[in-house]
């Protein structure tokens, strides 16, 4: 997966949103924080074309929680708010972030 991604990038080809989403889900499932963050930033640059579903948001949030990166939850909630609006998952992320930071 990574080799194919590097080849596509090196040839200056466009990456499909579904490919980036699959990579993000794989890295979140394996708990690879560094690679997940890199792909997450790529996803955020694909603003109009990508919608993160709730299950994927939860997987990414679990990786942040397991690595004690609670402020990233709040950042993710703010970014998602600007993309999808005021939803339950956005407020849950933000409240969870503040609760974890206070404990």
From TrEMBL:
Descriptive protein name: Pentatricopeptide repeat protein
């Amino acid at each position: 997966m990574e080799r194919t991604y590097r080849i596509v990038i090196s040839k200056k080809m466009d990456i499909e949103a579904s490919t980036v989403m699959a990579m993000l889900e794989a890295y979140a499932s394996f708990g690879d924080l560094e690679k997940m963050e890199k792909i997450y930033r790529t996803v955020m640059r694909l603003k109009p074309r990508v919608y993160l579903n709730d299950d994927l948001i939860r997987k990414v949030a679990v990786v942040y929680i397991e690595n004690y990166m609670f402020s990233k939850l709040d950042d993710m909630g703010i970014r998602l708010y600007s993309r999808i609006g005021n939803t339950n998952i956005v407020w849950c992320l933000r409240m969870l972030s503040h609760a974890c930071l206070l404990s």
